[in-house]
């Protein structure tokens, strides 16, 4: 998110006052800053500075700011606040937001915070905590308003007014039968438009729902693609247990896509804003991947060593090595990114591996023909037509292999229950580098008679 000039000036002033320890002036400055800007500023501060700034906020604004922070930043902030402050904030959170925070806190701190909740809030939070870590049940809200098929619109509106302060959303109401099974849904818009004595069964719509143990990302995408404001979460008997709201769905998707993009780039996800991440954590998020890729890159070195004689006889071949392995790596990464995205959207399943292999092989071959033709013409004109033939055929082969491997690697990862992003770009690049060089030198030997 881009910072405005005014926001940067405020941030610089806050940092200056923090450094000088002028808390009285700092408190005065903070009171005039909108909550959204305070969130951005806090996420760019160190843990100790975050706690100082947060304590200077008004009580009402503090909860709004806290709820808008990333869960890991919330976790850092909790450790910097006094027990009484933490208990008050924790009580004011929605149950699903509490669970986001609890998932990031040390296990020893969670029971203490739960014990300090009121009986009602502890019960609601325990419902959400009872579901698996990556399930939609873990991200749903148990605070909602329902109606029944035989209720009138007037009855439902009265029920809504009585419970409006307890519900996280009022724009979509689940309609239940006598056994608490989902019978349909009714929107606030339909309620307002209907006659007061109309029966809910006559205006409700068919309900789409997700099971509480379903993967949270899959459920979130189902909600956003359908354009719902919320979607009912049910148990195996289709009894209502909660709602997944649109804002929580977007939060889930943002979290998952941040992880995927990080791993595709060869780093572990930070899961917190950049400036709020300690230097050593930045180092740890990168060093393991660099070591793994460095070990993998020794394959490329070994291949070059095996074909050292070939390079010595035709030194011009060395000039094209960066071009060929770079093109192969990019082709594989493009295929992996496309298929990983299709997996996330549900367009492709792990069982579709044969179909994906065939499609990506054809795509790779076509890309190879286009690039290979260009490579043949340029290399042939500048060096010789034999060299041009080597480059052209190598590009066809490398692009075909890279696209095929890149396309099926995420499916293999899903099949063995590993994050597809982990298997994609870094490992594909390493594999294609080595295999591409082997293809290159074998074609060169065959055409040049080496």
From TrEMBL:
Q: Which residues cross the membrane?
A: 363-383, 389-415, 427-448
- On whether Membrane is a keyword of this UniProt record, the answer is yes
Q: InterPro entries in the record, alphabetically?
A: CBS_dom, CBS_dom_sf, Mg_transptr_MgtE_intracell_dom, MgtE_N_sf, MgtE_transporter, SLC41_membr_dom, SLC41_membr_dom_sf
Is Metal-binding included in the keywords of this UniProt record?
A: yes
Any one Pfam family here would be MgtE_N
Tell me the ranges covered by the CBS domain, including all copies: 140-202, 203-261
An example GO CC term for this entry is: plasma membrane
Supply the CDD domains for this chain: CBS_pair_Mg_transporter (cd04606)
Q: Which UniProt keywords apply?
A: CBS domain, Cell membrane, Magnesium, Membrane, Metal-binding, Transmembrane, Transmembrane helix, Transport
SMART domains, per this entry? CBS (SM00116), MgtE_N (SM00924)
- The protein's assembly and partners: Homodimer.
Annotated family: Belongs to the SLC41A transporter family.
Record-given protein name:
Magnesium transporter MgtE
């Amino acid at each position: 998110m881009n910072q405005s000039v005014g926001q940067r000036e405020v941030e610089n002033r806050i940092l200056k006052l923090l450094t000088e320890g002028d808390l009285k002036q700092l408190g005065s400055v903070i009171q005039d800053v909108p909550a959204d800007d305070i969130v951005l500023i806090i996420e760019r501060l160190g843990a100790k500075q975050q706690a100082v700034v947060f304590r200077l906020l008004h009580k009402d604004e503090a909860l709004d700011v806290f709820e808008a922070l990333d869960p890991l930043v919330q976790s850092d902030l909790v450790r910097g606040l006094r027990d009484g402050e933490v208990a008050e904030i924790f009580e004011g959170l929605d149950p699903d937001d509490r669970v986001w925070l609890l998932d990031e806190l040390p296990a020893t701190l969670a029971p203490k915070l739960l014990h300090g909740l009121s009986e009602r809030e502890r019960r609601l939070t325990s419902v959400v905590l009872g579901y698996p870590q990556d399930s939609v049940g873990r991200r749903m809200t148990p605070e909602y308003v329902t109606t029944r098929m035989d209720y009138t619109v007037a009855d439902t509106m009265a029920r809504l007014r009585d419970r409006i302060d307890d519900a996280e959303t009022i724009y979509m109401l689940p309609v239940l039968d006598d056994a608490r099974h989902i019978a349909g849904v009714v929107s606030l818009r339909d309620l307002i438009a209907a006659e007061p004595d109309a029966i809910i069964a006559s205006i409700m719509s068919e309900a789409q729902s997700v099971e509480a143990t379903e993967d949270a990302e899959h459920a979130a995408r189902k909600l956003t693609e359908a354009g719902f404001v919320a979607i009912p979460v049910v148990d195996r008997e289709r009894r209502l247990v909660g709602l997944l709201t649109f804002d929580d769905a977007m939060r889930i998707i943002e979290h998952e896509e941040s992880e995927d993009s990080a791993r595709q780039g060869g780093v572990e996800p930070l899961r917190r804003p950049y400036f709020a991440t300690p230097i050593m954590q930045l180092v740890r998020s990168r060093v393991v991947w660099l070591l793994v890729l460095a070990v993998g890159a020794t394959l490329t070195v070994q291949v070059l060593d095996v074909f050292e004689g070939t390079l010595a006889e035709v030194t011009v071949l060395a000039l094209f090595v960066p071009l060929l392995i770079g093109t192969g790596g990019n082709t594989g990464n493009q295929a992996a990114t496309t298929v990983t995205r299709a997996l996330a959207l549900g367009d492709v399943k792990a069982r579709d591996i044969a179909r994906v292999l065939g499609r990506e092989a054809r795509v790779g071959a076509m890309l190879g023909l286009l690039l290979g033709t260009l490579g043949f013409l340029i290399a042939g004109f500048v060096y010789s037509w034999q060299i041009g033939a080597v480059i052209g055929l190598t590009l066809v082969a490398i692009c075909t292999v890279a696209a095929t491997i890149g396309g099926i690697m995420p499916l293999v990862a899903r099949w063995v229950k590993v994050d597809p992003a982990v298997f994609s770009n870094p490992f594909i690049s390493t594999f294609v580098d080595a295999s591409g060089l082997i293809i290159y030198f074998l074609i060169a030997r065959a055409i040049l008679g080496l």
